[in-house]
């Protein structure tokens, strides 16, 4: 079994996945906020 050395693992894929998740979450929150604003202004 290989010896573990802290900080040597390649985490580029995990970093890209995390950044994509954060970006998608941000866009969803903005879209929901605009939807709520739209409904508040134009709902009967």
From TrEMBL:
EC class (word): oxidoreductase
Sorted UniProt keywords: Membrane, Oxidoreductase, Transmembrane, Transmembrane helix
Species of the source: Ruegeria denitrificans
The encoding gene: ctaH
InterPro entries: Cyt-C_aa3_sf, Cyt_c_oxidase_su4_bac-aa3
Stated name of the protein: Cytochrome c oxidase subunit 4
Cytochrome c oxidase subunit IV bacterial aa3 type domain residues: 4-42
TM helices/strands, residue ranges: 21-43
GO MF annotation terms: oxidoreductase activity
EC number from the UniProt entry: 1.9.3.1
